[in-house]
Design a protein that fits this description.
With 127 residues, the protein is of the alpha/beta class. The protein has a domain of 83 residues: Nucleotidyltransferase, domain 5 (2-Layer Sandwich), CATH 3.30.420.270. 31% of the residues lie in helices and 19% in strands. The strands form 2 sheets. A 5-stranded mixed beta sheet has the order 4-3-2-5-6. It has a two-stranded parallel sheet with strand order 1-7. The longest helix has 17 residues. The protein is elongated. It starts with 11 loop residues before the first helix and ends with a strand.
């Protein structure tokens, strides 16, 4: 009987498949963006940039809408959510459209002060 010689396994096609899968997942992945629900036109400023942490609370105020952590809500719902915050030192990131009436801004600031949430940062855009 004749013995068969074992052939070595060719790894070239395997490496090609791995690279194709890697490229596919890189191209098709979605990078997480900030949770923004409203398209706001922020006022410009020359202030220095502050780094935003993940556990911060984001509030967006437009001329007709309000959003909390990327979700549109009403003033009443916002008041309930602010009352439920346990960590009163948690940072609040406040984005306000430049066309918003001052009365709406004061209403939100009153809610924050009422719940002792004083670590507030107003977001602006660069010029």
């Amino acid at each position: 009987m004749k013995r068969r010689e074992s052939l070595p396994i060719d790894l070239t096609p395997l490496i090609d498949v791995v690279f194709i899968l890697l490229i596919f997942f890189i191209v098709s992945s979605v990078f997480k963006k900030e949770e923004l629900a409203l398209m706001l036109d922020l006022p410009s400023s020359h202030a220095k940039e502050v780094e935003i942490e993940q556990e911060q609370i984001g509030i967006e105020l437009g001329s007709t809408a309000l959003a909390y952590k990327g979700e549109k809500i009403s003033f009443e719902e916002l008041e309930l959510k602010l009352e439920d915050i346990d960590d009163k030192t948690q940072s609040i990131i406040f984005r306000i459209d430049k066309e918003v009436k001052y009365e709406r801004v004061v209403k939100i600031l009153d809610l924050l002060q009422k719940n002792n949430l004083n670590n507030l940062a107003l977001v602006t855009s660069k010029e």
